[in-house]
Amino acid sequence: MAEEKKCLREKFSRLRKNLTKREREQLSKIIKKNLFSMEEFKKSKVIMFFVSFKSEVNTIPMIKETIKLGKRVVVPLVIKKKKSLVAIEIKDPDKDLSPGEFGILEPKDSENPVNPKEIDLVLVPGLVFDKYGYRIGYGGGYYDNWLKYFNKNKRIGLAFSLQVIEDKIPISNHDLPVNKIVTDKAIISPQKGI
User: pLDDT tens for residues 100-138?
Assistant: First the structure.
């Protein structure tokens, strides 16, 4: 299973990197529009975004727009020793973020983490998602450890449509599915049946 996941990681990392910057920006705008149209998003007062890194769906414009809408935005801060995340509220991504672990932008201020119980929606990154809502990330296990605090209805994946596959991803006991996957082509409600 580890070898199969590794192959999928490499394949989809390559596919995503092959998108031009312009394509990524255009597709990210469509994903933002789809996300903002969802009832789950509209009803949420506290939303956890991942901060986009390299070739991921660009979440920075989404974060800025969400703050303008008067919602609270929290983003992850990596606690490497514990292989876990904490959520920190930000008010302005341009001022409040700086490169942290793994070069990903993280909150400069690590004080006052937000209790997971306050978070209404968690937007989840991944390299590849399957039609059942399972994902393969970068292999660190940080999100797997974090997502256990949230029921499935609060977990939504953000991905380009090329990152969603028909085949079932190999999963472990600790892997948790997302409730929906928002892409540039559709809002996918994963199938039951695992």
Answer: 878 899 999 888 899 999 999 999 999 999 999 999 988
For residue 61, the SS3 value is: helix
CA angle 136-175-166, nearest 5°?
A: 50
Tokens representing 92 are 């302005």
Predicted structure pTM score = 0.93
Where in the chain are the domains?
A: 2-188
Kindly report the length of the chain.
194
What is the radius of gyration, based on Cα positions, of the chain?
Answer: 16
| pLDDT recorded at residue 115 | 95
CA–CA gap between residue 164 and residue 128 (Å, rounded): 6
Question: Which residues make beta-bridge pairs with 135?
Answer: 129
- Which amino acid, one-letter code, is at 100? G
Helix (H) / strand (E) element for 28: namely helix 21-36
Helices (H), the chain: 2-17, 21-36, 39-43, 60-68, 93-96, 142-147
Residue 75 near residue 87 (C-beta atoms within 8 A): yes
Q: Which helix (H) or strand (E) holds 156?
A: strand 155-158
Q: Note the pLDDT tens digit of each residue in 25-61.
A: 999 999 999 999 999 999 999 999 999 999 999 999 9
Question: Which CATH topology does 2-188 take?
Answer: Rossmann fold (3.40.50)
